[in-house]
Structure formats: structure tokens, C-alpha cells
Amino acid sequence: DAGVIQSPRHEVTEMGQEVTLRCKPISGHDYLFWYRQTMMRGLELLIYFNNNVPIDDSGMPEDRFSAKMPNASFSTLKIQPSEPRDSAVYFCASSPRAWQPQHFGDGTRLSIL
Amino acid sequence: SQQGEEDPQALSIQEGENATMNCSYKTSINNLQWYRQNSGRGLVHLILIRSNEREKHSGRLRVTLDTSKKSSSLLITASRAADTASYFCATDAGNQGGKLIFGQGTELSVKP
């Protein structure tokens, strides 16, 4: 079991640049979640998918953020244009069914200069 | 707003002692889960307790749930330095379409 795989592990870029974070969920998991974690705000749910369909994107901070899940084995979270306040650790998680234990990737540490 | 609120925010103990962390929540739930996060890593699921259960054990972990008080506790017995991590509770907050609501976490430090 390879677990949830996120890439890149670290990303440092300048303000205004486009950032794309990638996630491969565990095979057979129907749910995929994107979270953001900061010291100030803790762990925030940004968006989640069920069977590749976005269910709730109310946590997405603003229109600069977008997420897609083109198939069951891949999802992206894009920030365009990026701002320093987007600096955080972004986690992807998957679960087999609703409300079941979630399996987290090791996150992408994003720094926007 | 966060559904789960952990208490205390930080806890420092000596190896061998027991560690107790508490979680309170606001709405009715189907289940409550506890997770651990080591520094620089993702969260790892520890244990799930359903709303009709009062207590559950897994190794050195003991979780209790009091739905009348809307609270849960996580007890780690005979703690080890390797238990040093942040611990989070998460609830389904009733019927919210499959997502979990995480609390702010308790940072546990176990000194050797």
C-alpha cells in the first residue's frame, strides 16, 4: 500500500507565480480532501471530492484557488496568482467512504516569497 | 468554525506517565476520531469511536466518549518519547456530506 502521494514536498516561489500541487490518492478510495495547515489557523478543509466530483468547496479562500480531479487517481490544487499569505503546508487525504478514517499524504510545504 | 476543541493546547510529561487529552464538540455526531501528527508529517488515524460506544481501546490508547456532554478523551498510558506529537480529534458533525471537522490539536511532549 503506497499511501497518499503528494508532490512536490517543498515549493518555494515568488509572489504572482502559478503553483500546482499534486495528489495521488489510495486506490479504491472514493473521497479526496485538500487541507491547508498553518500555525495561526490550524487545519482547514479547502475542498473535497466524492467519486471525482467536487462536493464542497466552501473552504477555498478565494478565486485564486482551484482544484480538479480528472480521474480517480489524480487531483491538483492550483493557486494563481500566488501570494505570501498562501504560505502553508497543504495536505491531501483520501478515505474509502464518507466519515471513515482519512489517510493523509506528507504534505507540500509551500513558501511564497 | 471548528467543531472539535482540544484541551489542553499543550502538555508536557515525563516518559512513563499517562497523558490525557480532551475534546469537546458542538453538534450531534455519528463518530469521533483521533489522529496523531508527528512533526513534518501528515496526520495518522489512531482510533474511531462510534456514537453508540462509550469506550474503546487500542494498545496503550484508551478513548472515551460522552455524547451527553459532547466530549471525548484520549488517554495514552505509559507514555514514551516516541509519543511526542500533536493529537487531533475529528468529528463528522452529523450529516455533513462525508467530511470531518478537525480541532486545533493538543501538542504533547514526552521527555525521556
Q: Can you describe this structure?
A:
The complex is a heterodimer of chains A (113) and B (112). Helix content of chain A is 0%, strand content 55%. Chain A contains no helices and eleven strands. In chain A, the strands form two sheets. In chain A, strands 2, 4, 5, 6, 9, 10 and 11 form a seven-stranded mixed β-sheet that branches. In chain A, strands 1-3-8-7 form a four-stranded antiparallel β-sheet, with no helix packed on it. The model of chain A has no long low-confidence stretch (mean pLDDT 95). In chain B, the strands form two sheets. In chain B, strands 2, 4, 5, 9, 10 and 11 form a six-stranded mixed β-sheet that branches. Chain B has a five-stranded antiparallel β-sheet with strand order 1-3-8-7-6, with no helix packed on it. In chain B, a hairpin with a 2-residue loop joins strand 6 and strand 7 (61-66). The radius of gyration of chain B is 13 Å and the shape is globular. The termini of chain B are far apart. Chain A binds chain B through residues 4, 31, 33, 42-43, 45, 48, 50, 55-56, 91, 93, 95, 97-107, and chain B through 2, 30-31, 33, 40-45, 48, 88, 92, 97-105.
Which features characterize this protein?
A: 113 residues; mainly beta; seven-stranded mixed sheet; four-stranded antiparallel sheet; 11 strands; B: 112 residues; five-stranded antiparallel sheet; 0% helix; globular
Poorly predicted regions of chain B: none
Low-confidence stretches of chain A: none
Annotation field: number of helices of chain A: 0
The radius of gyration computed from the alpha-carbon positions of chain A, rounded to a whole number of angstroms, is 13 Å
What gross morphology of chain A would you assign?
A: globular
State the end-to-end CA separation of chain B.
36 Å
* Morphology of chain B: globular
How would you state the average pLDDT of chain A, rounded?
Answer: 95
Query: Span between N and C termini of chain A?
Result: 36 Å
Oligomer: heterodimer
Q: What structural class do helix, strand and pairing data of chain A support?
A: mainly beta
Question: What share of the residues of chain B does DSSP label as strand, in percent?
Answer: over 45%
Tell me about the biggest sheet of chain A? Answer: 7 strands, mixed
Q: Largest contact between protein chains?
A: A-B, 24 and 22 residues
Helix content of chain A: under 10%
> Mean pLDDT of chain B, rounded to whole units?
92
